[in-house]
């Protein structure tokens, strides 16, 4: 039987890597995209037009659209990756977050039942380490009690439990991957890792003066998104529907991430001071930056409640799925992201120079 995957959130970091992965395994891949006034399709632009890659309009907030797409595509696997995924934004838009991240999961499950596919279609739900929130145990595994600590995490907790409920009530093959933070060169620019790598690249190339961050002491278990999508697939190939923690088992602070990112961009930082007064000062690197404060703390990036000690234990995924959590180390991940942003910023800088030259030439009448 040919394998047909349907991915919600296909335009995002994980959706794009998963599409590439499934296409390489011979799947027919269908993605659901939302109609919005701005098109964000940069991550999948290279896949559009491939014969086994198809896009459909739909929305997790619109059951009818989901029923239509699921009924038409008849997927053998669904990966529900769509979400309002920014924790800080969930404090500003809690109702929208609940609708997409909680009720949206229910809509996907019900669409599968409405189309009579509950016995043939396996469902992966993108769950999150944010469920552990105000952590009750370190490191966290599949048996650690949940303590969600943001509107995002509370919504995702509903998603986790409704998947478990449908598995038991209707005998459906649906499971959650409890993914710890996973990053890449395709990560959204407002998540802390990408914000740092982009700023390090801009500062190194003289296009930005300073980077403002929130809680530098927050601890995360950061992995490479490209490695994690393989695990999403492995979870659906397992004999039994089960939930899995996906993490590297290694923990670092935001401060350490910033230190290594700047170092890779050719700037050595020394952190001085505490709390709101902490600063990252350049102690080695380009001469014009030495002695300058390049990182400062701003209250704007603090959250009403913050999750500060996430550290995953991937033992179960290693043992039962044969997944390797150490494929890409923390240092390699930082390097991949900084290298990519250094190149991106250099290209942007070059394009800006061309535009500036052109404006000058037009003004001077050199070109008309
Ligand atoms: O924050 C601290 C911030 O926004 C990480 C999502 O994919 O992973 C992600 O959620 C930490 C937090 O990711 C800034 O307070 C300091 O403690 O990169 P983040 P997140 O909140 O961990 C989980 C697994 C998900 O499921 C989510 O969908 O870094 N932090 N200064 C900052 N964070 C941001 N964004 N910006 C700062 O300036």
Describe the structure.
The chain has helices spanning 13-24, 63-73, 87-92, 94-114, 151-170, 192-204, 225-237, 254-264, 315-321, 330-363; strands spanning 4-8, 28-33, 53-57, 77-80, 122-128, 174-179, 182-183, 211-213, 219-220, 223-224, 244-246, 252-253, 268-272, 279-284, 293-297. By secondary structure, it is of the alpha/beta class. The protein has a seven-stranded parallel beta sheet, sandwiched between helices. The radius of gyration is 22 Å and the shape is globular. The protein starts with a strand and ends in a 5-residue tail after the last helix. The structure holds ligand F7E. Residues 85, 87-88, 128-130, 180-181, 190-192, 195, 213-215, 218, 220, 254, 301, 303, 306-307 line the site of ligand F7E.
Outline the fold blueprint:
Elements lengths: L3 E5 L4 H12 L3 E6 L19 E5 L5 H11 L3 E4 L6 H6 L1 H21 L7 E7 L22 H20 L3 E6 L2 E2 L8 H13 L6 E3 L5 E2 L2 E2 H13 L6 E3 L5 E2 H11 L3 E5 L6 E6 L8 E5 L17 H7 L8 H34 L5
Parallel strand pairs: 1-2, 1-4, 2-3, 4-5, 5-6, 6-11, 7-10, 8-15
Antiparallel strand pairs: 9-12, 13-14, 14-15
